[in-house]
Amino acid sequence: MAINKPTIIIFIATVAALVIPAASATEHIVGGDKGWVFGFDYQTWAFQQHVYVGDKLVFNYPVGKYNVFEVGDAGWEDCYASSKQKGLTSGHDVITLETPGNKFFICKAKNDEGKWCCEEGSMKFYITVLAANEPAPPGKLYVVGDDKGWTLNVDYQAWANGKKFNIGDQLLFKYPAGKHSVFQAIDETSFKECIPPNADEGLSNGYDIVTLDAPDTWFICGAPDHCKKGMKFFVHASDPSKSPGFQGSRKLIPPKL
Ligand SMILES: [Cu+2]
Prior knowledge:
- The chain has helices at 5-24, 42-47, 73-78, 156-161, 188-192, and strands at residues 27-29, 51-52, 56-60, 69-71, 92-96, 101-106, 124-130, 141-143, 165-166, 170-174, 183-185, 207-211, 216-220, 232-238.
- By secondary structure, the chain is α/β, with parallel strands linked by helices.
- Strands 2-7-6-4 form a 4-stranded mixed sheet. Strands 9-14-13-11 form a 4-stranded mixed sheet. A 3-stranded mixed sheet has the order 1-3-5, with no helix packed on it.
- 28% of the residues are buried.
- It is globular.
- It is built from 5 helices and 14 strands.
- The protein binds copper (II) ion.
- Copper (II) ion binds next to loops.
- Copper (II) ion binds at residues 180, 221, 223, 226, 231.
- This is Phytocyanin domain-containing protein.
- It is a single-pass type I membrane protein.
- One of its GO terms (biological process) is response to symbiotic fungus.
- Keywords: Copper, Disulfide bond, Electron transport, Glycoprotein, Membrane, Metal-binding, Signal, Transmembrane, Transmembrane helix, Transport.
């Protein structure tokens, strides 16, 4: 029996379509080794994942302690899930991400001290699921100061000097709202002298994300004297368009914590 060429091509295409998604599906353990626990910053974790349709999210926690609800963006914002909705409660909940777009997850329980896990324990996040053929988002997300966040008495220049930044990378400044702020000094001189630009050019949410879009950026805190006390650093970013990975800017909704 002769098999003609189109048949073979269709056959190969079919096999490829069946095999490739399965082979590339990834399990993302929510919170990594920490699992699904009270007081972990899941939003930052989610921003650091590259998630594709077909991938799975795995929530690990002691049975009975917490739960998982997939909600809409309003439910995520307000920590709300309808009383009719049944959450996941197995302690090892696996959710397959079947469509692209933003997916929202919350916990609806109280911890041992009677505190709400979503409202008070930041057990909530959204994650952006990419279509199989979408390019990986460019850039890396760095938490400024790592676990210390954006605060006094940290050597931020030493923190920045240890890293190779690219244009398109993002810096996340975490701090209690009202205590600090984030400004980009307009040049090296205003950086050295701690002169912030206009007040309306600063960020002050406490969870501020800045995309590096220029080779040189100077960051300073706008709170009185904080810059002079060391809340300042300079970042040099290379241009990754010279490497094949860069594909435009990354879309984000800032979380409201
Ligand atoms: Cu400050």
